[in-house]
Amino acid sequence: MSSGGEADGAAGGAGDGASGGAGDGAAGGGTDSAGTVSSARLEETRRTVDAVWRIESGKLIAVLARLVGDVGVAEELAQDSLVAALEQWPRTGVPRNAGAWLTAVAKRRAIDGWRRQERLGDRYAQLAHDLETELGADDPARAVEETIDDDLLRLVFISCHPVLTKPSRVALTLKLLGGLTTEEIARAFLAPVSAIAQRIVRAKRTLTAARVPFEVPDRSEFPARLSSVLEVVYLIFNEGYSATAGDDWMRPALCWEALRLGRVLAELTPREPEVHGLVALMEFQASRLGARTTASGEPVLLQDQDRSRWDRILIQRGVAALARSEKLARGRGPYALQAAIAACHATAPTADATDWEEIVALYSALAELNPSAVIELNRAVALSMAYGPQAALDVVDRLVIDGALAEYHLLPSVRADLLLRLGRNTEARHEFEQAAALTSNQRERTLLLERAAAC
């Protein structure tokens, strides 16, 4: 959640653009008389495979994990089927049901692997028999598409299992459900590839060692486990929305990936109000991505943004998701409350028309549900807009004395803005400089230093 001191695009959601329904058979000119595939055809197929993988990998791994009972093995089998696609599709063309083709190939690799074992246990023998019966015909493309919703939901809960640390949950979720490569995850979080790879390997080993069952949690455990899932998805979104480090103010690809995961989760759990609340929140926030930076990547503050650049389709989707959340719940949960706050911004025609009094009331309700210093800081920003900077400064000064946000750069940033509005420029300059020293994001540091100089 960003405070009022935030500086508020991106291409369509991650995974868009896959060539679904591509015709069977090689396109004309793709091979010569000797069957050699042209370099252009190879490159075209590679792009298609990448797009299909981004869309289908989560479903594929989910189905395989249920069958083999091990996420690590499932991912290896899925990667094998990807290699097979890269080898075969340039010659044969992309099958009409690419997901079913990949699933069928992966299952056959599992059968072959088990049967190559010198001592084949009864369990693997039975699995191999069941899979072969299920596959039936020799042509993988003729495999019947499975119902994967339950499998995908199980994989969501496994990726975000409490036995894993939060960084591990994030990495594993992006790897298994997002279809991102280890290199892409490392680049997104500015971490060494080796560190992310080790984190993912350790996560899979931890799941195996803990014998985490491949199942949706029991009804009594569901709310707590779902809360962990939502937390991971929103953490991914927030890292994209306001990057904690690096040279870029935002990493929109992470926002789109989190939003895609949230939409999938909403389809899988349609009766869960907080899932729709989170989706609404991300739709509203994502609608502003295109206006949050200049063409050169410099941050643009919320009140200075060109609202004609806000994505009205995403705002409409946010309104619909928030309505679904409110219809399902007796009262608004934390994500629905945050979505309602975002809606106040998204639906206001101008910055001056924002209903700040309503935002103050919503933050107060949120603070009752989830008391935290960050929420109180956000409430202070709303207070300043509704009732003046002095009312907000009293709240912020109490937060300074409390010390809970001592290392949080937005605390001095917000305090600086309030002091500036009160005409206390020298103090404001000091606070802006302190905020700049605390942030690890280069774009944000530059903005804060510029504001300090302007004092």
Secondary-structure element series: HHHHHHHHHEHHHHHHHHHEH
Strand order of the largest sheet: 1-2
**How many beta strands in the DSSP annotation?**
2
Kindly state the percentage of residues in helix: 55-70%
**What about the largest sheet?**
2 strands, parallel
Tally of distinct domains: 4
**Which stretches of 5+ consecutive residues score pLDDT under 50?**
1-29, 137-148
The class by helix and strand makeup works out as mainly alpha
How confident overall, as mean pLDDT? 83
β-strand amount: under 5%
Distance between the termini: 27 Å
Which term fits the overall shape?
A: elongated
CA radius of gyration is 25 Å
Counted by DSSP, the helix tally is 19
In brief, what are we looking at here?
Residues 1-41 are annotated as: Disordered. By secondary structure, this protein is mainly α.
Task: Give a structural overview.
The protein has 455 residues and is mostly helical. It has 4 domains: 39-146; 148-245, no CATH class; 270-354, no CATH class; 366-455, Serine Threonine Protein Phosphatase 5, Tetratricopeptide repeat, CATH 1.25.40.10. 65% of the residues lie in helices and 1% in strands. Strands 1-2 form a two-stranded parallel sheet. It starts with 38 loop residues before the first helix and ends with a helix. Residues 1-29 and 137-148 have low confidence and may be disordered.
